[in-house]
Amino acid sequence: MEPFCRGRYRARLAATPEDLRACQRLRWLAFVARTGQPDDGQALDADALDPLCRHMLIEEIATGAPVGCFRFLPLAGGGQIGRSYAAQFYDLGALARFDGPMVEMGRFCLHPDCHDPDAIRVAWGVLGTIVAAEGAEMLFGCSSFAGCDPDAHSDAFAMLCARHLAPRRWHPRVKAPDVFRLARALRLRQPDPRRAMAAMPPLLRSYLAMGGWVSDHAVVDRALHTMHVFTGVEIRAIPPTRRRLLDALSA
C-alpha cells in the first residue's frame, strides 16, 4: 500500500522493526502514561496480537515525527472473528455468522500533544483505502473511553444505549468479568445530546455518523485504565451521503 498524504500528514504502513516500535511507543504514551506508570523513555505498549496485525503510522511530513497510529487485522469472514482482539473481551458468536470480509481496527491513538483534527481525517482517509483494498463489508473494533468511572461517561453511555445498540442479529454478549451495562446509565438519566457527543471518543463519533452501533455493555479495562464498547459498522449500510464522504477522504 502506498503512503497516503493529506496536508501536513502522511499515513504509511510500518515497514521496519523501528516503525513498529514507534507505534508501540506512541500507544504507550497515549494509553499507559496517563495511568501514572513510570517512564524510562523506552516503555512500549505491545501484545501478542501485534505480530498478526498490520500497523499504520501517521507522521508529520516535514519532520517525520509520529503523531498517530492504529493497527488493523483483515479477516476473510466471521468464521475468523475468534482471532480478533475484541474476541478476548466479548462473546462474538453472533458475528461468527457474518458472511463477508471484515477488518478489525484497534489501538487507534494520537500523540498526547497532537490535537489537530486533520490527523484524524488522514486516519479515516487511509482507513477508507484499506476497506476498499480488502473488500471489507464490516469494520469493527473497541472504542475506548478514558478512565474506569462509568459516572464520568454517563451521558455518552446513555445515548449509546438509547440510539446506537447493535442489531439483534449481531449482538455481542458478555464475556469479560468486569462490565458496565449501558442501560444502567439510561435508567439514571436522559442524555444531553450535546454533552453526550462531546464526550464520545472522536473515532466513535465518526463510526456513529456512518450508522455504526455498539455493544450493550462496556468492558472495564483496568490495565489501560479505560472502558471500551464493541463497535461495528456494516459498510453496505452506511448512508449514501456518509459513504461519499468516506470515499472522498480516501480519494
User: In sequence order, what are the helices and strands, one letter per element?
Assistant: EEHEEEEHEHEEHHHEEEH
Radius of gyration: 17 Å
Domain count, please report it.
1
Could you tell me the mean pLDDT?
92
Shape, per Cα inertia axes: globular
Question: Mind explaining what this structure looks like?
Answer:
This protein is of the alpha+beta class. It has a single domain, classed as 3-Layer(aba) Sandwich (Aminopeptidase). It has 7 helices and 12 strands. The strands form 2 sheets. Strands 1, 2, 3, 4, 6, 7, 9, 10, 11 and 12 form a 10-stranded mixed sheet that branches. A two-stranded antiparallel sheet has the order 5-8. α2 crosses α7, α3 crosses α4 and α3 crosses α5. The model has no long low-confidence stretch (mean pLDDT 92).
Explain the layout of strands and helices.
Blueprint: E1 4-6, E2 9-13, H1 17-32, E3 54-60, E4 66-75, E5 90-91, E6 102-110, H2 117-134, E7 138-146, H3 154-163, E8 173-174, E9 179-181, H4 182-188, H5 193-199, H6 202-209, E10 213-214, E11 217-221, E12 226-234, H7 240-250
Parallel strand pairs: 6-7
Antiparallel strand pairs: 1-2, 2-3, 3-4, 4-6, 5-8, 7-12, 9-11, 10-12, 11-12
Helix pairs in contact: 2-7, 3-4, 3-5
